[in-house]
Amino acid sequence: MNNVSSTHSKSRDALEKVLKITGELNKLNDIDTILDKILEEARKLARAEAGSIFLVEKNKLKFRYVQNELLYQKDSNNKDIYSDLTIPINTDSIVGYSAKTGKTLIIDDAYNLDDSHPFTFNSSFDKKSGFRTCSIMTVPLKTHQNRIVGVMQIINSKNPDGIIMPFNQEIQNYISFFASHASLAIERGIMTREIILRMMKMAELRDPNETGTHVQRVGAYTAEIYHRWALNKGKKIEEIKKRKDIIRLSAMLHDVGKVGIADAILKKPGRLNEQEYNIMKQHTIFGWQLFENATSELDMLSRDIALLHHEKWNGKGYPGSFHKENGLFHCMEKGKLGEEIPIEARICALADVFDALGSKRVYKEKWPDSKILKIIKEERGNHFDPDVVDAFFQILDVIKAIRKRYN
Ligand SMILES: [Fe+2]
Ligand SMILES: [Fe+2]
Fold first, then answer.
1. Domain boundary among 156, 189, 222
2. Which residues contact 306 (CB under 8 A, 6 or more apart)?
């Protein structure tokens, strides 16, 4: 093959690859899984050591995702993705400049910036972590209407021998092309998350305990505990990420059935009596009803979690099996037992209890961590699946980062 045709087929291969990845992106639902995939693929295209994504939120750049092959264990849970760092959209910083001007920036050496630039390189992350940033490509993520939804930064491109080099023209072209397609997936992911938050807002209008931050936390805890649990079980990372994509969203909907419970019970300032509690239990069945004719995997999992998040490993939870009489649902005495409860619901049960105990309620104060963690240990094998409790304790640092991010 002569040089020209080999270059041609190389660029056609790369283009086809970008299109294939875009197709895969379009199958994902959750914004976090989408960002993870975008960063992973962009880094692959550039053989880059690290990368991060910032999204525009309330006129600021909010740090949303990070990957770094030198700092983070490959494919393990990463607490740093829940960092609450925000950066103003102005020309003082590299990502701020890109978001403000809509321009792609190519920097060959972060520590030797041209004086003509208005921004400076912030080396605090390098200092703290021991990482050394060298070449940087910063791309604004724009929608078709040219609205900037975020900024992607790819760091330290390497040649095939693993030597760090500046981003060459070919790689710049691929990444820019990829970023323009990725923005669509990001917009869709943000929209899905917002629709779910809005659904929960309806539940929140009824039950002030079910706040947006509570559901974001429970969604994130459930997704991350699942990630650890599945690694422990030897599952493949690709499979884990696919499942995690729908777990976070469906766990956010765990209590959506509360919209069907009367105000007098939901808003009662104090503990419920037995009769009221029995009515309250029906929120699980109401949630299940919302997804009764589920066809997508997301709907099916939402249905299972809504129905089964109050079941207990030892069979003492609810609703177990139930029947309808005079227009009312009646739960049976016995709950589902052990592995009869799907794993996602077993995990959501722990995530929900952990979060509720750490939150103030009309009838109780917020509990200190020591007391909460003691209860969780005591309930290992009783209320909670022992393997789920073990996975939870393995990623306690991630759990705490999530709590801080959505407080
Ligand atoms: Fe519930
Ligand atoms: Fe809840």
1. 189
2. 253, 254, 255, 256, 257, 284, 287, 288, 290, 291
Q: Is 325 exposed, middle or buried (0-12, 13-18, 19+ CB in 10 A)?
A: exposed
What pLDDT does residue 407 have? 86
Please count the structural domains in the chain: 2
More confident residue, 390 or 269: 390
Residue 8 is assigned to a structural domain of this protein: yes
What's the 58 CA to ligand 1 centre distance in angstroms?
Answer: 31
Q: Are 402 and 220 in contact (CB under 8 A)?
A: yes
**194 within domain boundaries:** no
Partners of 153 in the β-ladder: 52, 138
Helix, strand, or coil (residue 217): helix
Provide the residue range defining the domain that includes 182.
3-189
pLDDT of 246 above 80: yes
**How many A from CA of 264 to the centre of ligand 2?**
18
- 163 in a domain, yes or no? yes
pLDDT tens-place string over residues 139-188:
999 988 888 999 999 999 999 999 999 999 999 999 999 998 898 899 99
Q: Which of 37, 244, 258, 312 is catalytic?
A: 258
Predicted local confidence at residue 3, as pLDDT: 64
Q: Please, what is the Cα angle at 126 between 50 and 44, to 5 degrees?
A: 5
Closest CA to 302 of 340, 338, 345, 262: 345
At 96 the three-state DSSP class reads helix
Reported as a single tens digit per residue, the pLDDT across 292-314 is: 888 899 999 999 999 999 999 99
Say whether both 21 and 162 belong to one domain: yes
Residues 21 and 141 in one domain: yes
Q: What are the structure tokens assigned to 142, written together?
A: 């724009």
Q: Is 371 a catalytic residue?
A: no
Cα 254 to ligand 1 centroid, rounded to whole Å: 6
Is the residue at 367 inside a domain?
A: yes
Which sign does the torsion angle of CA 210, 214, 220, 224 carry? negative
Residue with the two structure tokens 């959505």: 406
